[in-house]
User: Fold this.
Amino acid sequence: MDASITGDNSLTAAIRSGSEPLRARIDGPNIPAQGSVEILDLDPTGFRMLEDWEYKVEIQGVRGAIIRDKPSKKTLFTREREGEAVDVSGQVEILMDPGHAQATGTESFHLNYSVVFALGRNDIDLGGSIDDLVKNIRTMIEKHPAADLRYVVTDIPAWQEEKNGTPQREKLDAWNGRLKQEFGDSFIETFRWLIDHRKETFALAEQKMTDRDRAGEGDGVIPASLTLGDRGHLNRAGGKAWAAILVEELKRLHLV
Assistant:
């Protein structure tokens, strides 16, 4: 469910999947026949938009994109193509477009695939709450169209500065502990596995361990060679190892 969009939290994931509604007002009596119109009072207010990122949507049957314009700070809806003006009043529902490439992380909701909920990192970083994270994941589980949904919830990975014994790590561990409590056997610690089984992890990644990786063995964070060199996003090698562990966990749970 992670769309790999900056600032994409669990609420945005719920909205992308169609599990939570997104509503707003149009600035004016109609959606014009062409061009843009301002979008006001987005609801829920916790929906975060990345500036200058196009979110493909449909409003009142009109397809287009909403964008948070950086210079003006306005949220604008721009039609995909010219057509007839559409009268609107009050709140309108904004439907995320499942056919667009940005919906890669939500294909499961449209095709009844199994779901991996890899969420929570941005919820912590953006000042969210564990209660909301749990609520949003549960909403997506309940609203999924599959009759017998197969899903897992992964642990939230530690950033490089969240080493064992730090206050930041205590908070992260508390969030992961809550996810484990809430989702039981469906909660899998794939990121933790990368940390605790380094020899096997590097074999899966087809990567050699460096002196820096060995020196940080007790830090409790993902080895630096398996990250992009930033706060801790996985690089290609790290992603390969993580995917392999994910598949093994799905097999253990008899989901594949």
Summary: The CA atoms of residues 46 and 121 lie 16 Å apart. The two ends are 18 Å apart (CA to CA).
